[in-house]
Design the sequence.
């Protein structure tokens, strides 16, 4: 903008000079002043006449045209800068929102569960992370504080001879199955993960999936339950 101010000042100075010149009549040459000879005609004199009023009007027209172009260009730049400021403010709001609404948890089992019954909930009691406070170790439930997309991961381990199926249970339905099989192993582990769209107040937990499997329906302490909000 400083460049435009300087340019305008110079142009108005030029206009002022011509305005001043247009009001001053052109002095007629004195009779005794020497005349400039024309080549080939030494006795002829050269006389130049200028219409300062016409020149001044044309100059003003050109100057105002340049000023108008510069003014419109400056206005366009101003609008672009204002748009960028609005976008930056919106990004700051989104970052602040994400910081204040960060939800993540990770919990594991510290004591084994034997002879689980159908639809029994696993209480992952050792909470390593619980940002947002949405997971409750006492109930084994995760409760969504707002609508959004959430990622969940479950790992179930079972001991020798046990075959057990677990499920990620969301409200009134099962979202995914985890099948842990140690029928011919000392330890059998299985993992699964899922992205779930939750409404505010929806609860999520890990339960035994029906009565399928092979006793002793054992859940080992290496089992974990993890989740976080995507957006």
Sequence:
């Amino acid at each position: 903008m400083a460049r435009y101010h300087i340019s305008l000042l110079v142009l108005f100075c030029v206009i002022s000079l011509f305005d001043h010149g247009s009001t001053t009549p052109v002095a007629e040459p004195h009779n005794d002043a020497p005349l400039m000879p024309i080549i080939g005609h030494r006795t002829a004199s050269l006389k130049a006449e200028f219409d300062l009023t016409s020149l001044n009007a044309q100059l003003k027209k050109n100057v105002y045209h340049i000023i108008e172009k510069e003014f419109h260009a400056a206005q366009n730049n101003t609008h672009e800068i204002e748009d960028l400021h609005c976008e930056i403010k919106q990004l700051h709001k989104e970052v602040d929102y994400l910081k204040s609404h960060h939800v993540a948890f990770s919990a594991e089992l510290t004591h084994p569960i034997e002879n689980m019954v159908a639809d029994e909930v696993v209480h992952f009691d050792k909470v390593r992370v619980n940002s947002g406070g949405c997971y409750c170790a006492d109930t084994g439930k995760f409760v969504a504080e707002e609508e959004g997309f959430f990622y969940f991961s479950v790992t179930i381990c079972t001991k020798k001879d046990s075959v057990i199926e677990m499920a990620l249970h969301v409200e009134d339905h099962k979202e995914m199955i985890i099948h842990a099989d140690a029928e011919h192993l000392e330890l059998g582990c299985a993992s699964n993960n899922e992205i779930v769209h939750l409404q505010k107040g929806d609860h999520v937990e890990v339960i035994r999936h029906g009565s399928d499997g092979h006793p002793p329906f054992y859940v080992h302490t290496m089992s974990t339950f993890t989740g976080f909000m995507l957006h």
